Amino acid sequence: MKPQMTIDRFRIWLAVILLGVITMGTIWVMEVIRRHADDEQSRTSARSAPDYYVEKFNFIRLSNNGKANYHITGDSLVHLPRTDNIEIKHPQINSFDQGRPPLHLRAELAVVSQKSSLTTPKREHDEVHLHDNVSMERPEGLSSQFVRVESDYLLLLPDEDIVKTDKPVSITTGKLHSTATGMIANNSTQGLELLSKVYIQLKKREPAPKTGNK
Q1: For the CA atoms of 48, 53, 58, 61, what is the dihedral angle to 10 degrees?
Q2: Whose CA, among 41, 71, 166, 177, lies 20 to 30 Å from 25?
Q3: How far apart are CA 112 and CA 211, in angstroms?
Q4: % of residues, the chain, pLDDT over 90
Q5: Nearest to 167 by CA among 183, 191, 178
Q6: DSSP conformation letters of 16-73
Q7: Are 93 and 156 in contact (CB under 8 A)?
Q8: 56 — alpha (psi -120 to 50), left (phi > 0) or beta?
Q9: What is the band of 105 on the pLDDT scale with cuts at 50, 70, 90?
């Protein structure tokens, strides 16, 4: 005598089948999500990694009028595609534009944010962020006196020929030594503005050597 499937047994088997289908569907969805996350992580890692680098490079930046105004060297240069920034180790930057006093800048690290309409927000100007053991020197000239600035951070705006910071700075000139928090230096006008906590010390004049009586 063949067993007959009752209504209750049919309902149980139907529930088991539906549960199996739901379980398989859930596993498939989770596998799709995992693969998508892995692909996204791989793409993110690829964007974070440098897409090119240069060692012991020598670079000349041209101004808008076609004159060479900044000569940049460093131990290494890498480009980061995710931020479209350039990182330079041990940068040395020298300006030599006609009609302006030269500037010499050094640091442990420079991060260059180039002018771009593709970034968010859009970058209107080139910016060079100098970090760690930063120094800037302007030699004495016919119309300018020697100036040395030291700080942990300076921001160079090449198009405007301005160097500024909101960090503590130490400034040495021929007769003065100054400290302050925040500075704006305009190389075109040779103006120097100290923003806050300014302390100025006048160097003592060395006494004239004594002459012996004959």
Answers
A1: -40
A2: 41
A3: 57
A4: 28
A5: 183
A6: HHHHHHHHHHHHHHHHHHHHHHHHHHHHHHHHHS-SEEEEEEEEEEE-TTS-EEEEEE
A7: yes
A8: left
A9: very high
> Which tens digit of pLDDT belongs to each residue from 34-82?
665 555 555 444 456 777 778 888 877 766 655 557 888 999 989 888 8
Residue of higher predicted confidence among 197 and 2: 197
3-state SS assignment for residue 187 = coil
> Can you give the length of the chain in residues?
214
**Contact in structure between 92 and 72 (CB atoms under 8 Å):** yes
Q: Which helix (H) or strand (E) holds 151?
A: strand 147-157
H or E element in which residue 13 lies: helix 7-48
133: its two tokens: 């053991």
Joined together, the tokens standing for residue 116 give: 């771009």
Residue 211 region by backbone torsions, left for phi larger than 0, else alpha for psi between -120 and 50, else beta: beta
Residue 11, SS3 per DSSP: helix
- Distance (Å, whole) CA 162 – CA 103: 11
CA distance 202 to 196: 18
Residue 93's nearest CA partner among 52, 59, 56, 144 is 59
Residue 78, judged by CB atoms within 10 A of its CB (0-12, 13-18, 19+), counts as middle
Whether 208 shows a pLDDT value over 60: the answer reads no
Give the C-alpha separation, 84 to 52, whole Å.
Answer: 11
Q: Which pLDDT does position 196 carry in this prediction?
A: 93
